[in-house]
Specification:
It contains 7 helices and 8 strands. With 190 residues, the protein is an alpha/beta fold. The protein has 2 domains: 3-127, Response regulator (Rossmann fold); 143-189, no CATH class.
Length: 190
């Protein structure tokens, strides 16, 4: 199955997800904060990341941005128990930053496990590399399939999460090699 990294500051949440994911045949790595999670991502290849949003040291939105810089095709599922706003909630923002799926806590465990299975079975995931340790190429180098497009329109999205005005914002579109009309992935970079 897959190597799943679960990043959440709640011990019980990590333990519950670990148990369910291992029962479904996955291997699970855990991190209790975003900083530790990103350290694991740089040292250990993973197939998918599940992250909370509100955590100490590095929050989930920062993790999503860092993951998108390291490997735009790596699926991210976000879980959160707080910060709903009238105009935009934190899960909507997570999707704009590149999360594939989002769940409000409490959630049905079976729904998260099913989402993990579906993400790992997508054609795009099967043709892209796992996140390789820093400085080492992955089994499939995604660079030939990546195109960067700069857009001022992305400033409003990343600016709402603390992006600096006038900074560089890009959309990374990944295309599987050998396909003329692929599915594209989009991620924001700061």
């Amino acid at each position: 199955m897959g190597m799943i990294l679960v990043i959440d500051d709640e011990d019980m949440m990590r333990a519950t997800l670990r148990e369910a994911l291992e029962a479904a045949g996955h291997e699970v790595l855990e991190a209790s904060d975003g900083e530790t999670g990103m350290h694991i991502c740089q040292k250990q290849p993973v197939d998918l990341v599940i992250t909370d949003i509100l955590m100490p040291k590095k929050e989930g939105l920062e993790c999503i941005l860092e993951i998108r810089r390291l490997n735009p095709a790596l699926p991210v599922i976000v879980i959160s128990g707080g910060m709903r706003f009238d105009a935009m909630d934190v899960l909507d923002l997570a999707k704009r930053f590149g999360a594939r799926r989002t769940f409000w806590k409490p959630f049905e465990l079976a729904s998260v496990v099913r989402a993990v299975q579906e993400e790992l079975e997508t054609p795009l995931h099967r043709v892209t590399a796992r996140l390789a340790p820093a400085g080492k190429p992955g089994p499939l180098d995604p660079c030939p399939r990546v195109h960067l497009v700069h857009s001022d329109g992305l400033r409003a999205v990343s600016g709402s999460a603390g992006g600096a005005p006038g900074g560089s914002h890009s959309c990374c579109i990944s295309r599987p090699a050998g396909r003329s009309s692929p599915s594209f992935e989009c991620a924001l970079f700061r």
